[in-house]
Amino acid sequence: MSFVHPAFLWGLLLIGIPVAVHLFHFRKYRTLYFSDTHFLQALQAENKRQSNLRKRLILSLRILTVICIVLAFAQPFRNKGTDAFHSGSAHIQIYVDNSFSMENASAEGNLLNEAKNKALDIVDAFGESDAFMLLTNDKEGRHSRFLSKSDIKKEIAALQTSPCSQSLDEMMRYGFRCLSTGKGKNRQLFLLSDFQQSTCPLTQLPTDTTVLVHFVPLHAATADNLFVDSCWFESPLFLSGQECRLRAVLRHSGRNDLEKVPVKLFVNGRQKAIATADIKAGGRALLDLTFTPEGEGLQQAWIELTDYPVTFDDRFYFSFRTRNRLPVCCICGGKENPYLNALFADDPAIAYLNMPLQQLDYSQLENQRLLILDQMENAGSGCLQALREYVENGGNLLLVPGKQADKALQNEANRTFGLGAFTRLDTQRSKVADIRWEHRLYAEAMDAPAENMDMPVVYKHYRCENTLGAGKESLLRLENGDDFLSVQHLGSGCVYLLSAPIDEVFTTFPRHALFVPSLYNMALFTNEPTRICHTIGSNEPVPVEKDALSPEELPTLRNGNGSFSCIPELRRTYNQCDLFVHDQIREAGNYLLCQRDTAVSAIAFNYDRRESELEYWQPNDMKKYCRNTRNTQVLNARRLTMGTLAEQAGTARKAQGGWLWAALLLLAAETFLLRLWKEH
């Protein structure tokens, strides 16, 4: 037998009051004088026996009344969970949210400690023969089976915070699948969480009418948090010694405005920039950090701020690779193109090389960011196959027809790259009428396209037959519907095709404002990995440069100080290479992908920023959801003890009413006895 409020059992000491009244019997007697009491002796003996019986009955009724009143407040119940809902052995699943948001302060230290204490109370409310299962964001295999009462307590006590962030609807589906292995009808799921709005889509939660679901919301002592949400570079090109501009988003979930918040940028362990930001309550701020990278190669960096009490998101890690100059090569079948020379030759960020077709060095192809095949009709089949292999491995190639082109030779090149064949030379004057502004070549070329923008004029161009191949996009289209500039995705790279030579006799494009972003961005944007960071627990593939990894040795992923290393899964395809860490990364930071103790790539991992958004569902919102859903209820975490579990289930509340009715009946019986059985 257990009690919801055992402290009220001290009220049983009140039984001493009717006992004391019975023993001392504080009634005053009157003295009567009789001449002879001989005739009263028999009557006195009979009245004494009746009086003693009456007093003992009254004492018993009073004692029972006090006991019933005390038990009504103490609320006794049998310590057996099967009494709560169904008969038979119970299968109980307890989900403890162990994400980073549970590190927030609460009345019991932090929310995770409070959740663990409540989970132990839930276990104590059920019997020794019941089966228990612990569910966490880690989804560990050892937690997907039923345990005994003693074993589940050990698992709960050892529970720690985890970098994995899971949405509640996903965890409930996973929990329902695990509970389906339990036998019997008594299956219950307890959900202990802070119920963040970012990870708890309340209107999308799954239901299972065979499982009784208890929501136990935990309340944080504070909801203030300042964190770095994301960052990105304005340009994908990182050159050593040239200034880079990094943009970062700060978010604030607190209730007070913040001013002059210092934010620092570190690159390779050295502070490179500092800035301050003003952030309104519940708002965000966009911050610019400008720095100059030093040296060529891998760069590991992070943005840092200071915040309390939630600190896991005070750093945002990222990595990138710097180069001295971008290599661009023009393979010319005739004379050097003056417009290409004017664009690339004098640019300090571009290592521009003109290479005659007859002197082509095939070993230099893989090092180029952009290859331009000018007057392409002179290229032979061997050269074309080498260029196709370069594109498939992630390179960018621009095909430019010659001024006096041989259509047969040109179309051989087109067929090599899966492009449509040139049909004839169209001498009808036309104009560029449509630009694909959302393409990466033009997405940031200008803030907004002007309505009456002057477009390049095309005097002569080669008409190209339409192809239905996948991966083709029209970037610049003429008034007659022909493509002036198009792109074909091939393997990991891209092939760009111009329908006219880069010459003013054919078009004004070489002197137009679109000429620079069109060709320059072909060199900037390649299909090599450009993501500067990844999220822990997302299990998304991490792309790496295929040529950087040797197929003869497995790579290892290591942290900066060498205290951690793991072997990620490596998946190679014909034209790309992806890594899968499979939850091996548990700590945010900068990591190096190494082969034979040589770093070949830098990879940064951050904690899921959904955990940083400290906006919670209120209990009233959850109760509204439960009213529309069967077999769900919201429990008050502050009143959740071993006893109140039975009270919430309804057993103790019914018993409380029964004890009160019993006390009233006993009082009525005492009153009836006093009125009808008077003492003589």
What labels describe this entry?
5-stranded parallel β-sheet; alpha/beta; elongated; 28% strand; Rossmann fold
Q: How does the SSE layout of this entry go?
A:
Elements: E1 2-3, H1 16-24, H2 41-74, E2 76-77, E3 91-96, E4 105-106, E5 109-110, H3 111-124, E6 131-135, H4 149-157, H5 168-179, E7 187-193, E8 212-217, E9 226-233, E10 244-252, E11 258-267, E12 270-279, E13 284-291, E14 297-304, E15 315-322, E16 326-332, H6 338-345, E17 350-356, E18 370-374, H7 381-392, E19 396-400, H8 407-416, E20 422-426, E21 430-435, E22 457-458, E23 461-464, E24 472-478, E25 483-490, E26 493-498, H9 515-524, E27 534-535, E28 542-544, E29 556-559, E30 565-566, E31 569-572, E32 577-580, E33 589-595, E34 598-606, H10 619-627, E35 632-634, H11 642-649, H12 651-676
Helix pairs in contact: 2-12, 3-4
Detailed description of the structure:
It is a single chain. By secondary structure, the protein is α/β, with parallel strands linked by helices. It has five domains: 2-79 and 654-669, no CATH class; 85-222 and 614-649, Rossmann fold (3-Layer(aba) Sandwich); 226-323, Immunoglobulins (Immunoglobulin-like), CATH 2.60.40.10; 326-524, Rossmann fold (3-Layer(aba) Sandwich), CATH 3.40.50.880; 534-606, Immunoglobulin-like (Sandwich). It has twelve helices and 35 strands. The strands form nine sheets. A nine-stranded mixed beta sheet has the order 17-16-18-19-26-25-24-21-22, sandwiched between helices. The chain has a five-stranded parallel beta sheet with strand order 6-3-7-8-35, with helices on both faces. The model is unreliable at 79-86 and 649-653 (pLDDT under 50).
